[in-house]
Design a protein that fits this description.
Four copies of one chain form a homotetramer. By secondary structure, chain A is an alpha/beta fold. Chain A has a single domain, classed as Deoxyhypusine Synthase, CATH 3.40.910. Chain A is 46% helix and 17% strand. Chain A contains 13 helices and eleven strands. In chain A, α11 links the parallel β9 and β10. The longest helix of chain A has 20 residues.
Chain lengths: 316, 316, 316, 316
């Protein structure tokens, strides 16, 4: 029989204090340590170690409609502060990043509405966020002007194209990444409004976007990395593309944190555990990995605020 | 065509500040206002109004294995501060509350383990929380002693029985509720370790627990309430029992906040929207209601910390 | 290095044949054997073994709003055919069973509607099922008449009360169970419209429903069982009450199948794996157990149709 | 007050018959009509209408790890029978399709295992499916040989590349699509083992895969379509790419069925309702649309078997 004292660390009931900081709260969740609250606290610890490891390449995956929900500013801030070395995103997040960067807004709407009425009112819905068509009119003007500036007859990688766009913007993810020299990969760029705009442009222009031209640079980075870390908001293409990038090397990821609302039992990659990635060699055997199952519009700001507080504190 | 300016309030991208308080973070989520992050912020606003409404009876539903995860202290604290008038709980949460109150601990374990080995080691698992059998040995001793003190031949309600237990404890939910005179209802008390202990006791004693004896007091409270509010952690019996309690009155709930990981499309009450409750008259037509879909070990401490900060702030 | 031939049974791609029977389809899912499709097929195999084991007591747990969704007839049929020995249900399912048995119907509605309008139209909503208030008027008349027939001053168990109701009905779960002498347990009976009706009755009558009076009979059954099996539709009180019932014995469940839409990482009992139950001794070490994660309005009829087909086939 | 007779169609309780066919079962679920069981039946009805509409272009989206779970044969069969006009897939499904087509198998494993041991045994895990590294050795040989046959210096679209691969195979999705002249789109082809193999090939060869070269053909198809239908297994890039394809036309999809395990409240496209797509004009106002929330390893074979049975029946 195991005696109580052999059973490990007790769950310390969460004690709240009015006015506590976000990192105080995360510390309290960590001392309780159970379910996704516990995972969240371990995820902040691991993210902090990843960010502090100057010999590690830090990948960041961005899937799910995070920018329309107001989460883009945090990503741009993390790039600005130097906590992201490689960004992989869905095309949708980058589309909405451009929309905000050219001065349009998303709006707080509701999911309990008539989508047919919204259609008549020329409003597009993303769960409870509204986006007027007007924004796409301005988006089209900006994108076409940006594409016009590409040298006719050239062959570009997707990240070249995204840097070209980012350099024409002042705020947001693409702008900050371009300014800081952080590559932004988006393997399925065609699958977005940026892609549809590019199709429009390509009707009359001849600039080839080579689907594979980004891979040598990415893979070289992976071969050269002493260690690698991944912070994954959502699954989809960004998660898989990041995790598979280390597959060709001897190494795998040493740190991995994923925030997902999906579940493992459906077999899809988005909800797959990070342990599963160990069997493929995407994570090293010794890698530390944490999954937090919850809506990232709650967990991502919470974890990022705690991370910044801790980094600041140690900075002083 | 709807013009951008007619479309409502813009989603304000979340801006983080190292060292920000929990309520600052919730305010930032509220200004973004999207998905469950937005719901969480609206939920705190609504909870605050509910708690400040001195003419409202505030119900609190506690389902899911919250106490083993270290969430019991927050509930006891809310009772202590006077923010809960009626508590409805599952039997499991009360069992684990007693276990902690008699000095036993839950332990931080892992879900990736052999349950057969745990069985050999006499450790019970609740997802990633471990509880040694030893705790149940002490629990049995405490419970039997408590039951022995019941007057033979008496007929009690379930809340009478729980108050009797709470009065013999010094800390935790049952102790605080008993001390503050807050009724604790637990319709399915048989369905818990407290129930199994009671079965053991009843082998040799004759004390009847009348399943329905709590209803007149609860219903009287409902008939007398000017307004009623419900804060629901999880679904199950507590959610339904609370919501149905206003069904016999002319009134319904005016405020309702639920934290759940379930989903509506399966038809179960636990994941049902609060709007559905409006069709039944459980909520009034004008009631404000917010559901936050996420693990309550994240959302409950986050929301409670923000609530306490706001109440404190206004107190000064 | 493991060679392909050492890796076990190949996933056999599902081949469909127009006009195949339900059991043919389940067999095909079983030969593929992956994710929840594979679990479903293993679940049917296990259920079949459980039903064929004449020395096993077969428990059936019924949670979630299954009866309003048209699933009650399958349960009644399983009782009729002798495949259920003990039924544990939520009060809601039994309420809706009575409603159907007295000749009222549930209606096919929609979840995309105004609950305030439904309220005005006196229609209650359960996801996309509608139930007119009129049904509750007839329900009240039936229930009060049934309760009036209880001997004043008596003390009953909950299953006594439910048998009393079932004997006054001709079709459905309660009627079939009463006729076949199958006990129906419902620990949280207060938490239902049956409970509210009983409260009404108890205003003017004195019949005590002893919350614990069912436990000795249930526990005796468990102590006497050579083996026990559990088929669990949904979680909640029925799942826990069934699984805890073997806890006091030396034994545990030998067979267990659960159909659930919940998930394990939230820590709640409803979504907990059946392996977790092994650590508690609720399942034996050797027990076979299968969880199928999906909506039970799909999996339950599919599995039951396959079960009946197999039992019939072997019967010929 | 609404009278019972005004409330629509009653939920007809499901009655099972041993030996019933799959379509019989789906019909029974349809007469009940509730929750996801009801949606599944409506989804089969809609799919049947879509397939029978000879003026409609029928799109099929394939996301999630469906091929490793044995679902690839159904897709190939649907192509063979002429029920799919345009296929959009993730790269992973096509990778595993090639693996099966070259004679390797996936294996029935377990999710309850040590991924570190699997790594040592050179077995890759996809939830409860195992795939030995050996398969990737053979995959590499096949892929490199296939790529070597591409004319040096050429510029291809992604669907050209996939047709080139399919023409070298005899069975499976890519082979059947190539033989029947059905285009296979895979916008994020880089994000897969096919992509990694291509990167390897491109180290020493110069064949450009133009990311956008597929769009004119796809968009022309959309502009020319009288009506369009979408059957979506999973979300991800295939769902979005299909739905956005009609965005540039005056039209939208007239029929849409999606099978997903995701949920709408997280804001991601994979779990988004099809109604949301109406606000964007991706679906027409009058479009019929059904979402079935459940594991597609259950719903997809069930629905496809019912579809084939109905088509066959009417054929006789």
């Amino acid at each position: 029989m195991i005696h109580v004292m052999d059973c490990g660390t007790p769950v310390k009931p969460v004690a709240l204090r009015p006015g506590m900081t976000v990192s105080d709260l995360v510390d309290a969740l960590g001392r309780a340590g159970a379910y996704n609250g516990g995972s969240l606290a371990r995820g902040v610890d691991l993210w902090e170690r990843m960010v502090r490891d100057e010999e590690a390449v830090r990948f960041f995956g961005l899937a799910g409609a995070m920018v329309p929900a107001g989460m883009g500013g945090i990503v741009a801030d993390l790039i600005e502060r130097g906590h992201i070395d490689v960004l992989v995103s869905t095309g949708a997040n980058l589309t909405h990043d451009v929309i905000e960067a050219i001065g349009c807004s998303h709006y707080r709407g509701t999911a309990a509405c008539s989508d047919i009425e919204l259609r008549h009112d020329e409003i597009n819905r993303i769960y409870d966020v509204f986006l007027p068509n007007e924004a796409f009119v301005r988006f089209e003007a900006f994108m076409q002007e940006a594409f016009e500036a590409l040298p006719e007859g050239s062959v570009l990688s997707i990240s070249d194209l995204l840097r070209h766009i980012g350099l024409r913007l002042e705020t947001g993810i693409l702008a900050t990444a371009a300014r800081k020299g952080i590559p932004v990969y988006c393997p399925a760029i065609q699958d977005s409004m940026i892609g549809l705009q590019y199709w429009l442009f390509s009707q009359t222009h001849r600039v080839v976007i080579d689907a594979f031209r980004d891979m040598p640079g990415l893979l070289d980075r992976c071969f050269g990395a002493k260690r690698a870390g991944a912070f994954l908001v959502g699954g989809g293409v960004p998660k898989n593309y990041i995790l598979q990038s280390m597959l060709m090397t001897e190494n795998g990821f040493t740190y991995a944190v994923q925030l997902t609302g999906d579940r493992p039992d459906l077999g899809g990659l988005s909800g797959a555990t990070l342990d599963e990635a160990r069997s493929w060699g995407k994570l090293t055997e010794e890698a530390e990995a944490v999954t937090v199952y919850a809506d990232a519009t709650i967990t991502f700001p919470l974890m990022a605020a705690a991370l910044l507080e801790r980094l600041e504190a140690s900075h002083d």
